Structures
1.
Amino acid sequence: MKVAIVGASGAVGQEFLKVLDERNFPIDELLLFGSSRSAGREYTFRGKPITVKELKHNDDFKGVDIAFTSAGAGISKEFAETITRYGAIMIDNSSAFRMDEEVPLVVPEVNGDDAFVRPRGIIANPNCTTIQMVVALNAIESLSHIKRVHVATYQAASGAGASAMAELRKQYEQIVAGETPTVEKFFFQLAYNLIPQVDVFTDNLYTKEEMKMFHETRKIMHSDIAVSATCVRVPVMRAHSEAIWIETERPVSVSEAREAFAHAKGVVLEDDPGNRVYPMPLNKAGNDPVYVGRVRSDISNPNGLSFWTVSDQIKKGAALNAVQIAEYLLEHSKLQSRE
């Protein structure tokens, strides 16, 4: 198994290295690629040093089985043909191909089989907020079709990359020192603040991030589900949170919902409000699952439920989901060959 990581020096690229090692993903040879600025850097994987190569239009991907790409939509579009030319499966973490009809958009717990139909040799990794939400929604969809979703996200600085995390730390240090905080990565100061805008606004006054949740959820779940989102950047270092309200075709009781969450793949239920047990980003950063708590009936809607989710968007929202797609392909290819 020959594997490549494009964008190896970025936050998600570094997480790829950790996740592949943690999950003992079968790798005989690992190639790392980056920009001219990153080329020459050395990283250790399973005790062996690997030097980052500059990404170029050449034959470097000949013999590569799987290429995990996380270098931005522009790079993914420019190099997709180069990466897939010799048969490599490109699992792309950018927004470049998510809504392309010839590219499956995959969350393995929800629509893993979609990964096997990839005319362009590309599989898209959804947006981090969408991944987290659909893993939870899928548990309820198995009980009753979800007609409508309202969601408010509480998105950590890490969703904007390693430099954004560094800026948040620096802002707190500057404020404590009585200095004017540096504001470069976000629209406004994030420390001691909330910013009700993630990405740019579209013509309908929703942001691109909010519209991603609408379109991507429908594609992943093969559903007419309607999603209305408000995405907010919060001064949390890592792990996104979401407050979710859903309307189902029939009433789903709290006990039914809790049972479904408790047995859903990729979900951990932490829901004991009497003892203040519910997930929080502070202690969920670095973990794999989507955590669910605060499950309750929506008192404004007889067919409604409300719940809270937390998940590490660099892991499940990015690198982990991509690696799980590759694992799904390998495992189910083996099953099919045995059959």
2.
Amino acid sequence: MRGLPRVSPQTRERILAIASEMGYVASSAASGLATGRTRTVGVLAPYVSRWFFSRAIEGVDIALQENQYNLMLINLGGYGGNRERLFEHTMLRKQIDALVVLCLGLQPSELEHLHLTEIPLVAVGGPVKGFHQVCIDDYQAAQLATKHLIELGHRRIAQVLGDDKDEVDFAVPKLRDRAFEETLLAAGLRFEPGWELNGDFTVAGGVRAAAQLFDAPGEKPTAVFCASDEMALGVIMEAQRRGIRVPQELSVVGIDNHEFAEAAGLTTVAQNPVEQGRLAADMLIKELDGAVGTVRSVAAPFELLVRSSTAPPSR
């Protein structure tokens, strides 16, 4: 059954035929007892419903299936939740051979638990302290989007952030926020604190942020930088609902290249979470198969895709 030598072809053929007739499938649990391996890779995700996370999980799963590995999804169900039980019991009980951590800030005790597992680990979509990662340079991506608006001639630019107040030490929104502010200041532009709004990395959050921006008294921005496409789509929806023309009266740019971005004509800084997840899983599998040193940090590519949501200001 295992394809080992010293078995005659006739005997092998006969046994395999009987196994096929009986519908026999080798037990991965029994194999794990013999090898100490589960052939299972865990994916630790703060959410599974949001675009980046679901696409990254898809990429991990593609690589695992190609190499006959199983995927164990460890869904935190949002930041907070019953994280202690997941960290102390799920991973430390050796149910997985390796782990992919998706875009997640971790508490010191949680980082300690991950180090105690002594299994290969790669972060995807954002840095995790002390581990290798596959992700874009979030600072440069946000800088590229902001410079695009400035080069079009915009001087009054608002920002919709994706910061989640419940999360500790989550680097991605902070990097994008800092890049936006520093790029404005470097161009000699004024940063307006009242034009910095939280959109929670969701379409609904983008709608709420846009409503606050449009309802606020005083001067209005001519452009909005959004730290994710989902929030940018929400801003465009609210603008259209109010009769604000995009891009004639308001330019909008995002980050990600969400699957709806092209249909919406959204200018964005594109990344590919499917490929990031796939690369991370491939490295882990090779490491597990004995290629020591395969797991490393990789800077994922990104590019500005200019579509119809951005244009020079009309006022």
